[in-house]
Amino acid sequence: MFPSGSPRSLSLVFLLGMASQGISCPSRCSCQYLEVNCTGQQLQEFPVDIPLDTRQLILAANNVSYLPPVELSFLADLVYLDCRKNFLGDDLDFTFIGVARLVYLDLSFNNLSQVTFSTFSHLLSLVVLKISDNPNLVAIEKDAFANNTWLRHLDVSRTGLTFLDTSTVRDLPNLRLLGLSDNLWHCNCSFLDFITWMMESDVHFPDADNITCHTPAGLRALRMPAAEAQLHFSCLTQLHKQDYVFLGLVGFCIFLAGTMAAWLAGVCVVIYEAHASKGEEEEEEEEEEEEEDTRGPRLRALLLRGRARHRPRPGSLLIPAPSRRRSAPR
């Protein structure tokens, strides 16, 4: 019996590695235990006969222009893929759907022109992504790395990028290193939010001295801290022609709304006054009618009383009152 950690276990591991190597190995490639290295072999296509248990695949410095998703999906245990210095282009969407365990991916020095959500969305364990030195790379979608929450190292240096949305990198909770140097950054007011995030972030930016503005001409070769100060002044303290137009439209809308509100208020007041005066007139008419209704019986009663006073009593004689004559003066 051999104790744990004995030469027997080491020899078993060695034999397994030799067996894996002996099963298959692409021509012009070297195969060691769980590693296939095809660097600089002028390969035109993705190599075949790669051992299925390969963990590390190096295809650097070849002429490969296409990565077949089906062949890659056979390498379910692959964690390291180096494809730098090839001719890989735009057809990378859904390419890595079968290598979900991939931790390291190097696609630098290729012909990438854009990165979409579908490019790396299946690489949930990705930690290092290098897509630098792709001069045709001009666009990275806002949610391109939305599923790569474990990403710690991202390099997009020396590409054709002029703009990068802040949320693209800000929403990566584990990001620690971000390469942005020697790009064609267009430092306008839309880019100010990204520059401000750079100044306030804890992320490390290697070669920070070469992270400069390319356009406009007034900010060319200006480093990001100085560009931030310039943009703060020009974007947040000064008004441009479109700003005045916007403020004019807002003022006109406020004036129009105030005029309409005043007109509606006036109409409501007139309607209310008319209704109130009509109600008062109706009340006055009702009061007059009530007074007339009560005044008629009272007048009749008064007339009857007056007649009763001047009517002679029965059995009495009416003796005319003697007339008084004035005596003529003598």
From TrEMBL:
GO cellular-component term (any): voltage-gated potassium channel complex
Signal peptide bounds: 1-24
Annotated stretches, region: Disordered: 279-330
One Pfam family hit: LRR_8
UniProt-listed InterPro entries: Cys-rich_flank_reg_C, KCNMA1_auxiliary, Leu-rich_rpt, LRR_dom_sf, LRRNT
Domain LRRNT: 24-56
Keywords: Cell membrane, Disulfide bond, Ion channel, Ion transport, Leucine-rich repeat, Membrane, Repeat, Signal, Transmembrane, Transmembrane helix, Transport
Subunit structure as annotated in this protein's UniProt entry: Interacts with KCNMA1.
Protein name per UniProt: Leucine rich repeat containing 52
Protein species of origin: Zonotrichia albicollis (White-throated sparrow)
Taxonomic lineage from the root: Eukaryota, Metazoa, Chordata, Craniata, Vertebrata
